[in-house]
Specification:
The structure holds 2 protein chains of 2 kinds.
Chain A lengths: L9 H8 L2 H4 L13 H11 L3 E6 L2 E7 H9 L7 H4 L1 E2 L4 E2 L4 H11 L3 E5 L5 E6 H27 L1 H4 L7 E8 L8 H12 L4 H21 L2 E9 L2 E8 L7 H4 L9 H5 L7 H8 L2 E7 L3 E9 L7
Chain B lengths: L2 H7 L3 E2 L12 E4 L3 H7 L4 E5 L4 H10 L3 E4 L7 H10 L3 E3 L4 H10 L9 H13 L1
Parallel strand pairs in B: 2-3, 3-4, 4-5
Antiparallel strand pairs in B: 1-5
Helix pairs in contact in B: 2-3, 3-4
The chains are: A alpha+beta, B alpha/beta.
Chain lengths: 309, 130
């Protein structure tokens, strides 16, 4: 639980991103300074508000609150002008300020509401703590809908497209001895499966097997390609290269058998465990090779559910 | 155990610029052979290795490793650090050997994740045949 403070929640992120103008209420009920306090009381009752900006000639001159109405009532001064009972030159928020800055000012000044002004100094809205809460909720709902829609798109991709058999094919080039950027193809296949909502165990099996196959192409061949075919219930990854080919396929499948040179071993590969790893990850494996032509490794993974999970 | 605690135990340091030191590590695995990492590592593990090329990060990504600690005082080259930053995998550094680093962490309570059924079954069969 101690991590909560360090990992910001979505709401915490939002208060830093959102601006005051995005959460404030802009349909304003304003009071002229020459109204008697009794009229303010009536206005507050009708609109069920507990405070209002005081505006003269389009300019903000003060704020009047329910508390000030009550005080006037107690003192028997309901005929007094708003001008004499209001808070003159009130603290204002600028519309471009962040919500977190507004929250800090609520805490610092203890007011129930702040008038909001634009860059030209004109009154454009009013902000209460309630506006902040409903603004945050609205924003989170929007984000949630966007996320739901995205999830739906990926997970239902195969169900929405009607055909006798729908297959998504991903194709990547793999270069010889490219140990700096090599592995990128497997990384992209892994990411695609995660996005499609594949089960984490399936993602792991395909990622590990595909990466071992990609490493094999990098180490042993003159270059080749990885082709991943994703279809409902089945993922097929083919790793094929343009040579030189494997002399003894049966021997190559044995755990610990390797033809990799020392410099490859120094990189942490070439111990002859790659094909064993691949075999334990996929459901069926098919390795064919012809000297001088190339090698083709087909790995099939069955997925539990429909929709390429 | 947090990355912060792990660094203190091995008198190491964080290599990556942006590391959340409060990240929890459940288990650890030490290997210099990347195929072993791919076969035996559980998701959420910290990898201890002496291999500093970018493929150590790739392997970690594929196996779902949470953090990598380089042992024997080795510092990874720039491409490795860049790839780790891209994949958001924190890199740590230990001045001790693999054995000493593992020993210190194990003694402090950081355990292994055991063997994955998937890998151990197949590898066990091969062993029996041999």
């Amino acid at each position: 639980m101690e991590r909560i403070g360090k990992t910001p929640t979505k709401a915490q992120e939002l208060v830093y991103e959102l601006r005051v103008k995005q959460v404030m209420s802009s349909d304003l009920i304003v009071v002229p300074p020459d109204w008697p306090m009794s009229q303010v009381k009536a206005l507050m009752r009708t609109h069920r508000i507990s405070g209002a900006p005081v505006v003269q000639d389009g300019k903000l001159v003060g704020m009047v609150s329910l508390e000030q109405v009550i005080r006037a009532l107690e003192a028997g001064q309901m005929d007094a002008c708003v001008r004499d009972r209001m808070t003159a030159s009130p603290h204002v928020l600028r519309e471009e300020e962040t919500v977190i800055s507004a929250i800090n000012q609520f805490a610092r000044h203890g007011y129930g509401r702040f008038p909001v002004i634009n860059a030209a100094g004109e009154l454009v809205g009013l902000l209460t703590k309630g506006d902040i809460v409903s603004g945050l909720l609205k924003q989170m709902e929007l984000l949630w809908h966007a996320e739901e829609e995205r999830r739906y798109q990926y997970q239902h991709m195969f169900e929405d497209i009607e055909s006798d058999q729908t297959t998504l094919t991903l194709r990547y080039q793999v270069r010889q001895h490219d140990f700096d950027t090599g592995g990128e193809a497997s990384s992209k296949i892994k990411r695609a499966l995660e996005r499609l909502g594949a089960h984490p165990q399936t993602v792991r099996r395909v990622a590990v097997a595909t990466y071992e196959a990609e490493i094999n192409i990098m180490i042993h061949s003159v270059g080749g390609e990885l082709i991943a075919e994703l279809s409902p219930g089945r993922i097929v990854v083919v790793a094929q290269d343009a040579g030189p080919g494997i002399e003894d396929v049966e021997q190559a499948m044995l755990a610990g058998y390797s033809t990799a040179p020392d410099w490859i071993r120094e990189l942490g590969f070439g111990a002859g465990m790659g094909l064993s790893n691949i075999r334990s990850c996929c459901d069926t494996i098919n390795l064919t090779s012809e000297m001088g032509v190339g090698t083709r490794l087909e790995m099939v993974f069955f997925t539990q559910d429909r929709g390429a999970r | 155990m947090t990355l912060d605690q792990i660094i203190k135990i091995v008198q190491g340091k964080a290599i990556s610029a942006e590391v959340d030191l409060s990240t929890e590590i459940e288990t650890a695995f030490g290997a210099d052979l990347m195929s072993d990492v791919l076969a035996f590592v559980h998701t959420g593990t910290m990898l201890l290795t002496g291999l500093t090329n970018p493929q150590a990060v790739r392997t970690a990504e594929m196996a779902g490793v949470t953090a990598i600690m380089f042992v024997r005082g080795k510092c990874p080259p720039a491409p490795t650090i860049a790839l780790a930053a891209e994949k958001k995998i924190p890199l740590l550094w230990s001045p001790y050997t693999m054995y000493e680093t593992c020993g210190r962490l194990y003694e402090a309570g950081l355990r292994s994740g055991g063997l994955l059924d998937l890998a151990s079954e197949t590898w066990g069969e091969g062993f029996e045949k041999a």
